[in-house]
Amino acid sequence: MASLLAQTTSRLGARPAAQAGPVAQMAPMASRVQPAMPSALLPLHARATTTSVACRAASIDKPVVYTPRDSSQQSSNGAGEVSMSISSMDEVGPSYEGIITDAPTRPTGLYVRVRNMVKHFSTAKGLFRAVDGVDVDIEPSSIVALLGPSGSGKTTLLRLIAGLEQPTGGNIYFDDTDATNLSVQDRQIGFVFQSYALFNHKTVAENIKFGLEVRKLNIDHDKRVAELLALVQLTGLGDRYPRQLSGGQRQRVALARALASNPRLLLLDEPFGALDAVVRKQLRTGLREIVRSVGVTTIIVTHDQEEAFDLADKVVVFNRGLVEQQGSPTEIIKRPRTPFIMKFVGETNVVPATSLLAKRMRFNTSKTSVMFRPHDIKLFKTVPPESGEGALTTVGANVADKANLGWVVKYTLRFDDDVECELQLSRDQDEREYNLVVGSRVFVHVPHRTMMGFNASDVDSTPIV
Ligand SMILES: Nc1ncnc2c1ncn2[C@@H]1O[C@H](COP(=O)(O)OP(=O)(O)OP(=O)(O)O)[C@@H](O)[C@H]1O
Known about the structure:
13 helices; disordered N terminus; binds adenosine-5'-triphosphate; ATP binding; ABC_transporter-like_ATP-bd; nucleotide-binding; ATP-binding
């Protein structure tokens, strides 16, 4: 969609000056045409329509809205705006007239705020605290991933936001409206689930149309289906049945159907869970482009850390019905706030707090164990100076194992108290600087700031009954 808009605008910019109408100065509602797109190149007209198309092109440094004069030249896109096809512009030629204004700065997606959300389920063993006081802010038009171990409450929160579960306590706000008690229908949300939930007896086009029919939208359904098929790159497959599609294609149909009614919020529950790694990766790139182009706020539940960090603007990590940490992927990866996050996200070494390594590094903690990342270990082939410039405290270890894993080399180091840890290097760096063999004596330093003390209970992820 983004490229369609760019092409559309560049066509507008390329229109011959002779087509400019004398009514250009009469447009009272139009703001000044951007300098990079001289008004002479674009016919302007005083008649504003109720709909518009957002355009962005290399020649203009900010988005604009082009409002065509004739609404028959428009079609609705997934963002609730209106787009036009390039072929129709060629057909209509000089009669294609409209107004250029600055695009509204307000994003089209919903701003979702979850406040002190609680959901307790009654079970034979008593109340089960699936969600136990959660606050989450989801910026308009952003992509947010809910990540966490099985049973941590991700899907329950998604269902609460969708209105499929009633909260035990707390509130959900959509923009400035308290949506806590809104019905599912009134929330106007698009859903995509792992199991696709396509109708097998309906064609692809009919499945997508269903998304329009349930909302009773008064728009040209066939035209909208064609746009959505193009958006998810399935043009030409509208007549097929779901059984005639690959898993990835079926999931794209589910996405098209979810976007059919221009939702301002899209909820995805493990949407790629049933697909293999290569298809998952392709689909997530496609998903990112699609949801960005239509501006819909998107919340995705996933087990897959790579997916969460690659896709999301913000990652919310759940544990036992609570949010352990929320922030940008970089914040979560580089600045884990709790032992649980440290253990759950990325690889960690765990050693006893009484180990030779922890003592030599003078890492004092009241906790029983210490963890640190394999890539935070500093490795030396000879003992570095312990005083003066560049002085570092080190501890000796032997190389117990070496594994060549493609671009990465993994060493297992055994300290003199038999405690082991792992160290990862790029193959390049290993060949350049180390190239160690099993049995070599090495020296390591682990910076204090990268070490975290913890007790087993700090990293427990057993759901709380
Ligand atoms: N209707 C219910 N009645 C009782 N317990 C429930 C109900 N729905 C969910 N739970 C429990 O609430 C906890 C949280 O479930 P939820 O589906 O939100 O977890 P999740 O983090 O999405 O897990 P997964 O990644 O495995 O899907 C689970 O332990 C689950 O068994």
